[in-house]
Specification:
The chain has a single domain (2-276), classed as P-loop containing nucleotide triphosphate hydrolases (Rossmann fold, 3-Layer(aba) Sandwich), CATH 3.40.50. It is α/β, with parallel strands linked by helices. The chain has helices spanning 15-28, 44-47, 52-60, 67-70, 126-138, 153-161, 173-176, 179-193, 212-223, 225-228, 240-247, 258-281, and strands spanning 2-6, 34-38, 75-78, 82-85, 97-100, 103-106, 142-146, 164-169, 198-204. It is globular. The longest helix has 24 residues, at 258-281. The mean pLDDT is 87. It has a seven-stranded mixed beta sheet with strand order 5-6-2-7-1-8-9, with helices on both faces.
Length: 282
């Protein structure tokens, strides 16, 4: 099981778009069994898989979400039912949702905002423990974790649970100049928590080709010794259709435009190769 977090501390960089479409591509084109974990309190990844009605009905039917990993009994906070009593349960009780063949989701929950977790409480290890338990049942090939755009306990939980991370970057100065800051924060977390997580690349997203901004971004990253080898050859192009499809729980591979599909499949294949190469060195 290869566990990959998609991380960027800046919002609006296409992180969720990239992570959910990579997961969908792995499941449908690469025939891999994939679990998507939405640990972002904004639960944007969840909305790529659930319509509003479907999600409401899922919660009403007592379906499990990421919130169930962290909430304490006997109180249960629910968007649908308010505050109710709940019993303790095992990690194996938190069953992911099968979206389609090979693709499963542990949905997010807006009520993560109401949970207070202090660093060092041990709760930040729950996602890691959950994945170890649930994988014995489902035997996933990949776990894709969509993280919040803030340095928080939820990001720490994702880092603790992951083997690798990818940095989606929009090619504008505010986005790519923050890469060094993000890497420094992750480096500190690695030292503090004794993590072995590795960066397997920077993927440019929402790209408008043949623009000064895009060319400047590639040039800037290419000049930095510690970053240039991380930059993926393929990038995700800006297309208004992508957002429209997401609103209807559809993906890039569902679109008719072949150039965007080729971009995505190229990103996925390079990601797999980077992981293969890293594992071969171990």
């Amino acid at each position: 099981m290869r566990k990959i977090s998609f991380i960027n501390m800046k919002g609006g960089v296409g992180k969720t778009t990239l992570s959910t479409n990579v997961a969908h591509c792995l499941a449908t084109r690469e025939n891999k069994k994939v679990l998507v974990v939405d640990i972002d309190p904004q639960f944007n990844a969840t909305q790529c898989f659930f319509s509003g009605d479907k999600y409401f009905n899922y919660l009403k039917a007592k379906g499990k979400t990421i919130l169930d990993l962290f909430i304490e009994g006997p109180i249960n906070i629910s968007t649908v039912d308010g505050v109710t009593e709940t019993k303790n349960f095992e990690y194996s009780d938190i069953t992911p949702v099968e979206i389609l063949e090979n693709l499963f989701v542990l949905p997010g929950n807006l009520n993560l905002y109401q949970i207070e977790i202090s660093a060092g409480s041990g709760k930040e290890n729950r996602l890691k423990r959950y994945l170890d338990v649930i994988n014995k049942i489902y035997h996933f090939d990949y776990v894709i974790i969509d993280t919040p755009p803030t340095p928080s306990i939820w990001m720490v939980s994702a880092l603790l649970a992951s083997d690798y991370y990818i940095i989606p970057v929009k090619p504008d100065p505010l986005s790519y100049t923050g890469i060094d800051l993000l890497q420094n924060i992750i480096s500190r977390k690695k030292k503090d928590l004794d993590l072995s997580i590795k960066c397997i690349g920077i993927v440019l997203t929402i790209v408008e080709e043949a623009t000064i901004v895009f060319n400047k971004c590639q040039e800037t990253i290419g000049k930095k010794k510690q970053l240039k080898d991380l930059l993926y050859k393929k990038y995700l192009k800006k297309r208004t259709d992508i957002a429209k499809f997401q609103l209807n729980q559809q993906f890039i591979l569902d679109q008719p435009k072949d150039d965007v599909k080729l971009c995505l499949t190229g990103i996925v294949q390079e990601m797999i190769k980077r992981i293969d190469d890293d594992e071969a060195k171990q």
